[in-house]
Amino acid sequence: MEGNDSDSAGDLLPSPVEEQREDYIYEVVVQSNSTNPSSQFADVALLQTFKPLIIPCYVLVVVVGVFGNYMLFYIICRARKMHNVTNFFIGNLAFSDMLMCVTCVPFTLAYAFNPHGWVFGRFMCYVVFLIQPVTVYVSVFTLTAIAVDRYYATVYPLKKRTSVATCAIVLTGIWLLSCGLVAPAVAHTYHVEFKEEGFTICEEFWLGQEKERQAYAYSTLLVTYVLPLSAVCVSYLCISVKLRNSVAPGHRTQDQADAQQARKRKIFRLVALLVAVFAVCWLPIHVFNVLRDIDIRLINKRHFLLIQLLCHLCAMSSSCCNPFLYAWLHDRFRTELKKMFTYHHRVGIPVNHCAASVVL
């Protein structure tokens, strides 16, 4: 028993290699701030002045994102008529966006505004820094899968639709791919305590591997933004062209023709909005990361943390838009949502036996 206790205690102590890495990280942090000690915490002080504005914005994102995506996920799970491949993709998107709001926003805010830095411990450091990018990548890849699925359903309506089994394989592949893309970053994430200074960091450091870090950053940008955005644009462009050139069979009255044109315009506006929201929400954070990777001095040091947090807020706002764009603007989802909050009285039953029920 004593031997086991000593082994356990030994496991809790940092190894010589870990101590050397932490010392190296400490030297990197100190050297990067030693050139101008007066501005070492200037960006932190500036960020604190915007705290009353930033926190309510993040709270709004969390409330709207969690509530909207939960309602969407709940409808898909409870309504049997909603069980189809497209809605399963949308449900996966809602789940990942909910997880994104719960993990990304609270921990990011606490880490940004807490004077002691990361206060959630070593284990949560690695868990949170794994879950955060995974949920982001899952959301992006699911958006792409939805666009491709809509493309085949619209452009090739007579072909066999994607099966539920294939959908499950695709969703599993999306989660595995996302975890695989995050693995290198998690492997280079360090939890370092500066006891004398009274703060702790949980950051990604590629010690002596600058070229590898840049290669990973640019490849991640390509895989998680450029390629998905291209796929979404091409898919929805083909959908728009197909709908514009489609002609309903048989003789149509003027009212029917006007109704079809109105439907086409509505779909085109929705498609344009989908692409615009996806591109605009994620563009600032990617531009920020590229500038930081090229030369961190391109970003004003005094405004660094503030710009980074605002870019992060813009990216997180996409989780609020998705429930409305991908679900609540569709008639079937709106119908199911109304059923959840409407009491329907049974018809043809005597008054003394009437019962009200919530239709889900």
Automatic annotation (TrEMBL):
Any one of the GO CC terms: plasma membrane
Lineage of source species: Eukaryota, Metazoa, Chordata, Craniata, Vertebrata
InterPro entries the record matches: GPCR_Rhodpsn (IPR000276), GPCR_Rhodpsn_7TM (IPR017452), Prolrel_pep_rcpt (IPR001402)
Keywords assigned: G-protein coupled receptor, Membrane, Receptor, Transducer, Transmembrane, Transmembrane helix
Record keyword Membrane present: yes
Protein name: Prolactin releasing hormone receptor 2b
CDD domains to which the protein is assigned, alphabetical: 7tmA_PrRP_R
Transmembrane segments: 53-76, 88-113, 119-152, 164-187, 215-239, 267-285, 305-329
Domain G-protein coupled receptors family 1 profile as annotated: residue spans: 68-326
Gene3D superfamilies on file: Rhodopsin 7-helix transmembrane proteins
Record keyword Transmembrane present: yes
GO molecular function: neuropeptide binding; neuropeptide Y receptor activity
Top-rank taxon: Eukaryota
Gene designation per UniProt: prlhr2b
Record's bilayer topology term: Multi-pass membrane protein
